């Protein structure tokens, strides 16, 4: 084969390749056009269907006379639009319209279909059926869902537990408690399941969804169950606040549990029920050996918001873990006005730098400092003096930027004068730069003069004085 | 001697044909798995988010981290868009790498952000953080001003300041979808014990209308460089969607990446010179592989971010070379971490995909040139020539066409017929026009990276922060 022939063949190959590429792209473009056209018509049809179904469900949920059967009959059972709207209607249904909707679904054969699907050999159909049986909440399907708790598929078991969680029935509660009792020690990698088991978190969520009826049968398990069960029960109690004396006593007992997870969850639960009698035990829990127990205790004391919690929370501001310090400061902030004196007192008296920083951090996240800045102009000297003293302390612990911002922008010259007085002793470059700006640019002559004086004298700090004199020069 | 040369030439031809065919087959495999993944996701997407057992989960808070390195004129609108994200619990942390510019200062005024002295806990050592600003009317906004170092250092500062258990790192100048956080957090909320990172599709912002920090009108501009970038982005989305079920990860997450803060802290944050999100994902996977924990990284086949691309060929070349350098750095980092367990085989597939993506243009163009030359010299037969050229042109076009079709099936597609037609034309022309150019840029960047490696300066030193630091 000569070179010419080879070139000819090569060109042929390139031509074929280009043609095949063009044909591929053209075919894909045709497919795209077909897809778009089809999609448009499908979407239009779907929208029309949706409107019809929506009108149907709106009529059903309102007080109008219920229709005899579901629109288009049960052949729509696989229609995603219909099922979506049915699920939405079930979510929105109130106590009167929900039984009507469920009865209609039963009459139209939906429940029977899903019950049959719960026996399907295909696991995903069983899972789908379990999910829908849970949503429909027909009493007939309780036995099916309880049977699916022992399904061979892990996914189906999980969905069945979730489905049982969505409605309440005495048989459901006993089935869930039985599942909980079968829980053994956790696997080494946390709450993940072994085969033929459901994760404890799933059962816990389902029991949480059962609400108050689940609390009483769980209490004995909080005292004598194995460790994961005690943890689960404490978690359930933290999500199902029940102020019954038996529950409170059980939770207070759980605060002395061997397992820190149980203690932490018990503290959280006591915070949820806002039991004032728990203030003292929770305050004791603030000195627990495990940091997250102390954290939950601090949060719980913040939730209870009782004045007796202030002193222990103030002492928790010096905790070695910053999370606990932050939670204590946050709790004190949540306590509102009653805690402010304690916070400010701690700011003035504490020798712990970190506690003071934490207080200043939390105060900056509120409007308290801004209120104090505005209070500098207060007519009553006691108030303005207290504000000045507090702001000076805040500035001493590093939070100067908010004051400098006020110094530059506050409309009242008297406030700016007081701020200059507060910031006078600081030798930091930011403060000096701000004073320099004010000295040169403030509209008020008195403020300019005060800034100049502050820069010249440099306040009480000798280091700051020398720097300030340099700036003033 | 002649026999040896003939034998060697034959091996070169076989290697060229094999590499081109393998690359095309890999593209076909990814297309198939992407279609399957997208189909599953589409079925799953409708309806509320539910955990594995069907109970609606509590939304977990997220810190959105945005690094501002150049003074972006549209920063105020972007912040407005970020603060209006459709998610119940999030905060926005802007890290200004360097002094605050005029546009960011205006944005701070707009959001009433005032300087405060927040406690900065440098869990990851970073350069000095000079100032913090806190939005007084928008308490979810925190702005950090730090000394200018690297993008990775700025990201680490943002991670240090984050108060949420999950952080979402937003790419430079990227605009997020309103539902981006909801989409990215959906896999996390469904399986919070195992999912440590998620990412989504990134689209090209050029030509789109942005109103209030949100993409309001979608269009594809006619400039060749942008059309090529769009096509490249669509192919990357296809590859990421296809790789996700195989390896659980993304070859090139760009616009935004959501990850568990604890996992990032555990691997020591972003490394200098490795600010690319994939690098941190590599390290997270590697760090967690040693713990024998079943962790997942998930790609969500839905658009989450829109990023601008250069609209000139020179700009596209620069961007491509930068990407090649990042990929090389990432692959180099990965080769240092060779201790991969058996469950990380999928991860090796990602490395392979990245390597193929990097070497693809060179393999295609080089393979076609080698086989053509060998055919003209009589050392290759007609079948090899046909296979290579079909793979280079037709298979490549097929993958691009599949990417366009895949884009048609996702949310926020280009609505105009002209835009899609333009993309199909670009899919035919791309192997002939852009592929050789990308091969050239790859070689240039690779050579540059090799050269720079000899003369690389030491890493920038990190200093302790001037902002208050507790114990």
Structure description:
The complex is a heterodimer of chains A (473) and B (471). Chain A starts with a helix and ends with a helix. Chain A is mostly helical and 473 residues long. In chain A, helix 10 packs parallel to helix 12 (245-254). Chain A is extended. In chain A, 72% of the residues lie in helices and 0% in strands. Chain A has a domain at 367-473. Chain B has a domain at 50-319: Spore Coat Polysaccharide Biosynthesis Protein SpsA, Chain A. Chain B starts with a helix and ends in a 17-residue tail after the last helix. Chain B has helices at residues 2-45, 75-83, 102-110, 151-161, 180-190, 224-247, 261-266, 277-289, 313-336, 345-376, 382-408, 417-454, and strands at 62-68, 90-97, 113-116, 129-135, 141-146, 166-170, 175-176, 195-204, 209-211, 214-217, 256-260, 296-307. The model of chain B is unreliable at 46-55 and 459-471 (pLDDT under 50). In chain B, helix 1 packs across helix 10 (345-376) and helix 8 (277-289) packs parallel to helix 9 (313-336). In chain B, 50% of the residues are buried. With 471 residues, chain B is of the alpha/beta class.
Which terms summarize this structure?
heterodimer, A: 473 residues, mainly alpha, 26 helices, extended, B: 471 residues, alpha/beta, Spore Coat Polysaccharide Biosynthesis Protein SpsA, Chain A, 10-stranded mixed β-sheet, two-stranded antiparallel ribbon, 53% helix
List the helices and strands and how they pair.
The complex is a heterodimer of chains A (473) and B (471).
Chain A lengths: L2 H59 L18 H13 L4 H11 L2 H8 L5 H14 L5 H7 L5 H12 L4 H12 L18 H11 L4 H10 L2 H13 L5 H10 L5 H14 L5 H7 L5 H14 L5 H7 L5 H14 L3 H11 L3 H12 L3 H8 L5 H16 L4 H9 L3 H11 L5 H13 L3 H13 L4 H11 L1
Helix pairs in contact in A: 1-2, 4-5, 5-6, 5-7, 6-7, 7-9, 8-9, 9-11, 10-11, 10-12, 11-13, 12-13, 13-15, 14-15, 15-17, 16-17, 17-18, 17-19, 18-19, 20-21, 21-23, 22-23, 22-24, 23-25, 24-25, 24-26, 25-26
Chain B lengths: L1 H44 L16 E7 L6 H9 L6 E8 L4 H9 L2 E4 L12 E7 L5 E6 L4 H11 L4 E5 L4 E2 L3 H11 L4 E10 L4 E3 L2 E4 L6 H24 L8 E5 H6 L10 H13 L6 E12 L5 H24 L8 H32 L5 H27 L8 H38 L17
Parallel strand pairs in B: 1-2, 1-6, 2-5, 8-12
Antiparallel strand pairs in B: 3-4, 4-5, 6-11, 7-12, 8-11, 9-10
